[in-house]
Amino acid sequence: MKKEFGAEVELIPGSGGVFTVCADGKQVYSKHETGRFPDDGEIVSLLR
């Protein structure tokens, strides 16, 4: 994210397989909703 957008990111540890990506307070990806981890480059594409 830093290389692509110059953004600082924060990893917040969770439990139970939770994987959610938020940007500017909005959810852009949720493993819970999709049932899978994102593919390579998928998060970058969603943020564009």
Structure description:
InterPro entries: Selenoprotein_Rdx-typ, Thioredoxin-like_sf. It comes from Candidatus Electrothrix communis. Keywords: Redox-active center. Pfam families: Rdx. With 48 residues, the chain is an alpha+beta fold. The mean pLDDT is 91. The protein has one domain (2-47). The chain is 29% helix and 19% strand. The radius of gyration is 11 Å and the shape is globular. The N and C termini lie close together (11 Å).
Which SSEs are present, and which pair or pack?
Elements (H helix, E strand, L loop, with lengths): L1 H4 L14 E4 L2 E5 H4 L7 H6 L1
Antiparallel strand pairs: 1-2
What's the gist of this structure?
With 48 residues, this protein is an alpha+beta fold. 29% of the residues lie in helices and 19% in strands.
Task: Provide keyphrases for this structure.
48 residues, alpha+beta, two-stranded antiparallel sheet, 3 helices, 2 strands, 19% strand, globular, Thioredoxin-like_sf, Selenoprotein_Rdx-typ, SelT/selW/selH selenoprotein domain-containing protein
